[in-house]
């Protein structure tokens, strides 16, 4: 395979070497270039022999120096589409009429390495796995179960059980693996969860972390398999198994490895663990340790303000809109803040997810429509700004999942809306207007 060069950055190494837009990149140092992983791996050498369609070009470069080539897409070809039809797939549970990008299911090993996406391995070939091992690429794997038959059933893909061999092959080669399990009551919980955790723990240290998250079910499940959500009893039972394995790993290796998502503690009505429980926060993007991290950062930020700030007498009135999961924590943090800044008053509003259904509790899936509808009765109490988590928005944009914008919320509620990263320091700064 070869890749067409779309443009060359002016005065770059490639430009000075005479490479032109429209040239076709075939090899680097006699290695075939098929996509971005090949390109990034082989272009790191300091001396390059670049094979183009009708000539070769030699380039000397410094370590980390950019060659200056640009391609049609970031991956240099198309994303790999997921071949599964998982019984719990969230995308299958979204209503019609939303923007096209929300319905695309990727299952691309390149995005696992480059952006931290999780893959099921059903798109992998033997050659792909050999390349991962050769390049020593860390991978994020959606395992769900190590029972081959059950995995095939849950993904509706007969290959899903067979490709578990790739997991063991990569682990045997020392590839660093972060894994996740979407837990579905009466499918992969109970004894099946014990089997999966036992199998994955036996692959430590290659398997660096295991996140277990409860299945998310929306109200849009017509013609989909009938599934149950976790309740207090079933969440408590699952949490007991998860913590049993985590404690076992910590006692044996001084590394917890096995982590429940924050949602499990909420569902089981158990207190969240403290910051140290999560060690390196390897599964932060899976909602593992977000509450503990936010709390510690906020308390540390508050201590810094207390130590270095002069007496604060500014009067502030503002609000925060968040999901069911984070609301209790945010109310607690706001209470701490008001002890140090008594003239700052913050209303924390818990936004019920009417769009997807009340069982969806994370803030990142809240729509602008739900914020508007539920805050309209409190319009005159919102203060001079409304804080939301930036996870509610499309990456790099001001667009919510329902395609409404920050401006739509601002114009309807007559309040300035500010998106805040999931970071305690940033949250306190946003509250104090800094």
Mean pLDDT reading:
90
Number of strands: 14
Largest sheet geometry: 6 strands, antiparallel
Give the overall silhouette: globular
Number of domains: 3
Helix-strand category = alpha/beta
- Under CATH, the homologous superfamily of the largest domain reads pyruvate-formate lyase- activating enzyme
- Provide the gyration radius in Å: 25 Å
Strand content: 15-25%
Give, in order, the helices and strands: EHEEHEEEHHEHHHEHEHEHHEHEHEHEH
Query: Could you estimate the helical fraction of the residues in percent?
Result: 25-40%
CATH architecture of the largest domain: Alpha-Beta Horseshoe
Count helical runs. 15
Which CATH first-tier class of the largest domain would you pick? Alpha Beta
Which parts are unreliable, with pLDDT below 50 for 5 consecutive residues or more?
A: none
What name does CATH use for the topology of the largest domain?
pyruvate-formate lyase- activating enzyme
Describe the structure in your own words.
With 434 residues, the protein is of the alpha/beta class. It folds into 3 domains: 3-71, Pdz3 Domain (Roll); 91-286, pyruvate-formate lyase- activating enzyme, CATH 3.80.30.10; 293-432, Rossmann fold (3-Layer(aba) Sandwich), CATH 3.40.50. Helices cover 34% and strands 17% of the residues. The protein is built from 15 helices and 14 strands. The chain has helices at 13-16, 36-42, 109-115, 126-135, 148-155, 159-162, 164-172, 190-201, 232-253, 262-268, 290-308, 327-340, 368-375, 406-413, 424-432; strands spanning 3-8, 24-28, 31-32, 47-52, 56-60, 69-71, 139-142, 177-183, 207-214, 258-260, 316-322, 344-350, 385-389, 416-420. The strands form 3 sheets. Strands 1, 2, 3, 4, 5 and 6 form a 6-stranded antiparallel sheet that branches. A 4-stranded parallel sheet has the order 7-8-9-10. It has a 4-stranded parallel sheet with strand order 12-11-13-14, sandwiched between helices. Helix 8 packs parallel to helix 9 (232-253).
């Amino acid at each position: 395979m070869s890749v067409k060069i779309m443009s060359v950055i002016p005065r770059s190494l490639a430009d000075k070497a005479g490479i032109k837009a429209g040239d076709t990149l075939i090899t680097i140092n006699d290695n075939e270039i098929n996509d971005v992983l090949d390109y990034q791996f082989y272009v790191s050498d300091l001396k390059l022999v670049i094979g183009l369609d009708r000539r070769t070009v030699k380039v000397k470069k410094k370590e980390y120096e950019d060659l200056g080539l640009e391609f049609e897409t970031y991956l240099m070809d198309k994303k790999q589409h997921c071949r599964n039809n998982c019984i719990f797939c969230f995308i299958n549970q979204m209503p019609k009429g939303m923007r096209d990008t929300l319905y695309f299911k990727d299952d691309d090993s390149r995005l696992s390495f480059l952006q931290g996406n999780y893959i099921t391995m059903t798109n992998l070939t033997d050659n792909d796995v050999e390349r991962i091992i050769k390049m020593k690429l860390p991978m994020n794997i959606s395992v769900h179960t190590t029972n081959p038959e059950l995995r095939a059933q849950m993904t509706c893909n007969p290959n899903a059980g067979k490709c578990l061999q790739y997991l063991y092959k990569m682990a045997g080669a020392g590839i660093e693996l972060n894994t996740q399990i979407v837990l579905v009551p009466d499918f992969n919980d109970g004894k099946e969860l014990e089997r999966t955790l036992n199998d994955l723990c036996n692959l430590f240290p290659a398997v660096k972390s295991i996140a277990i998250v409860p299945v998310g079910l929306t109200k849009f499940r017509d013609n989909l398999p009938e599934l149950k959500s976790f309740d207090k009893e079933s969440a408590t039972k699952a949490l007991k198994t998860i913590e049993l394995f985590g404690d076992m790993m910590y006692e044996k290796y001084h590394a917890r490895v096995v982590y429940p998502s924050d949602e499990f503690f909420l569902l089981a009505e158990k207190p969240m663990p403290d910051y140290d429980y999560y060690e390196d926060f390897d599964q932060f993007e899976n909602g593992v340790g977000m509450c503990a991290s936010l709390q510690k950062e906020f308390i540390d930020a508050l201590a810094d303000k207390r130590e270095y700030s002069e007496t604060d007498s500014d009067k502030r009135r503002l609000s925060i809109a968040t999901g069911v999961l984070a609301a209790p924590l945010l109310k607690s943090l706001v209470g701490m803040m008001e002890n140090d800044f008594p003239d700052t008053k913050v209303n924390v509003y818990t936004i019920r997810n009417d769009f997807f259904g009340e069982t969806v509790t994370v803030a990142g899936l809240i729509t602008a429509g739900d914020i508007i509808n539920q805050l309209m009765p409190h319009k005159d109490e919102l203060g001079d700004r409304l804080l939301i988590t930036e996870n509610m928005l499309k990456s790099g944009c001001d667009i919510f999942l329902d395609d409404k914008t920050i401006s739509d919320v601002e114009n309807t509620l007559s309040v300035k809306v500010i998106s805040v990263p999931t970071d305690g320091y940033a949250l306190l700064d946003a509250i104090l207007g800094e």
